[in-house]
Design goal:
By secondary structure, the chain is mainly β. The protein is built from one helix and 28 strands. 45% of the residues are buried.
């Protein structure tokens, strides 16, 4: 059984499939609320992030994906800090800590499976913070990668930061990436949209940036551009199928024209670690389609399954690492996040 959680601007849905990939739709959850992230704590508790223009963001916990309780005190900067605009991501470490990335560019930590949260002060109070600037989607910490005592945080429009001491200190790691913010403080001003790492070698990380697609082989000390075969370097998500090693991006025409190039809606795939790219298989729409895929709206199951949701509310899936694609049942509000739960 595969369960796919789909968060949208107006609630969330669960899609369940059997071994024959026949899908059933369950929901909505949180009807009328924006749902921006899903996660799972070490004790098996499910986590969901919601947002509201009236009530702000919240963290909800569930033992079974059906009965949800909002935590009394979610992540917050406090009276002296910025207003917390959105929860972008949950990441659980091997030792059971849950890291939560938020806007306005902060990271919070829970040691009780999401019930209470404390700021990661070395990141939230970084010496360069006064020079941090937002991208078009705000100033958001949207990815946390973990490898023992090492940690990478990706934040827009700021860049990638690495900690080598379990989050006690952070250093920007963006050498080789084209900056997106002019005249920024050295080391920052890079609008990273998404990152993904090789689970077998955490020094190998791929990033989709505002200004292109990049790879590092040394944990972020240096980056190289990897766009051969792509129709454009601009886009939001990047994901990896760990079974095949295939990488996936969804190129868009340009910053000022955020639609697929020539209306050709499709994911593009690399089978050689990013050295070259081509359209990922077949099954994509034949007619011009001008929707996009947001940074959180792609997920992989580690066994050839890749799932992505569009701003037009459609879900696409492959079970063979991108050779063939099908559209899943339903048409939803604008999809913000897709997760295997």
């Amino acid at each position: 059984m595969t369960t796919l959680a789909v968060g949208t601007d107006k609630g969330a849905w669960l899609l369940h499939s059997d071994d024959q990939r026949s899908w059933a739709v369950d929901g909505p959850l949180f009807p009328g609320w924006g749902v921006t992230a899903f996660g799972r704590a070490a004790d098996g508790t499910y986590l969901a992030a919601t947002g509201s223009g009236w009530f702000g963001p919240g963290v909800h916990r569930s033992p079974d994906l059906h009965a949800w309780d909002q935590v009394a005190a979610g992540p917050a900067f406090g009276d002296s800090g910025p207003r917390l605009e959105q929860i972008w991501t949950f990441t659980t470490s091997l030792d059971g800590r849950v890291f939560c990335g938020v806007a306005e560019a902060g990271v919070f930590v829970s040691d009780d499976h999401g019930v209470t949260w404390e700021p990661l002060r070395a990141f939230n109070g970084h010496p360069t913070r006064a020079a941090w600037q937002p991208g078009a989607g705000g100033m958001c910490a949207h990815r946390v990668l973990l490898d023992g005592d090492r940690m990478w945080v990706a934040a827009s429009a700021i860049g990638v930061f690495r900690s080598d001491d379990a989050g006690a200190t952070f250093v920007p790691r963006n050498d080789g990436v084209e900056g997106a913010v002019p005249d920024g403080e050295p080391g920052i001003g890079y609008c990273v949209h998404a990152v993904v790492a090789d689970p077998a070698n955490a020094d190998v990380i791929w990033r989709q940036d505002h200004k292109g697609v990049y790879r590092t082989d040394d944990g972020g000390d240096s980056w190289e551009r990897i766009e051969r075969g792509l129709p454009a370097g601009f886009g939001f998500p990047i994901a990896r199928d760990d079974a095949s090693g295939a990488l996936f991006v969804v190129p868009l025409a340009a910053d000022e024209n955020r639609v697929p190039v020539d209306g050709r809606f499709a994911a593009w795939r690399s089978l050689d670690g990013g050295d070259s790219w081509s359209v990922a298989g077949k099954g994509w729409p034949d007619e011009p389609t001008y929707t996009s895929v947001l940074r959180g709206a792609i997920a992989t199951d580690g066994d050839g399954g890749v799932y992505l949701g569009s701003t037009g509310g459609e879900l696409w899936a492959t079970a063979d690492a991108g050779d063939t694609w099908q559209r899943l049942p339903g048409r939803y509000p604008r999809i913000a996040t897709v997760a295997l739960v």
